[in-house]
Amino acid sequence: MAAIRRLIPSFNRVLVEKVVQPKKSAGGILLPETSKQLNSGKVIAVGPGSRDKEGKLIPVALKEGDHVLLPEYGGLEVKLAPEKEYVTYFTILLLQLLVF
């Protein structure tokens, strides 16, 4: 995990660790694999942002630890650890989950 902390995405990209959906419910019921679940993930690293026409930095609105909804397609898969799946996305493709 220390190597992942040092990895900084470029521009307005973010590194996301996909959250694996449980195969059983809290009560022990097996969940069908055909059920549509939203892909979600946790932001691991954030790039510095992009620049506008005048050269001003536009920072990324997400921060490390945020939970986001992921699109089904469009990310670039990155293999950093064999048991976990990491994907990079442009920030405009992600939807932040607000937890109340």
UniProtKB/TrEMBL annotation:
Keywords: Chaperone. It holds the Pfam family Cpn10. The keyword Chaperone applies. Signal peptide: none annotated. One of its GO terms (cellular component) is mitochondrion. One of its GO terms (molecular function) is ATP binding. Forms stable complexes with CPN60 in the presence of ATP. Belongs to the GroES chaperonin family. Seems to function only as a co-chaperone, along with cpn60, and in certain cases is essential for the discharge of biologically active proteins from cpn60. This is Protein groES. It comes from Aegilops tauschii subsp. strangulata (Goatgrass).
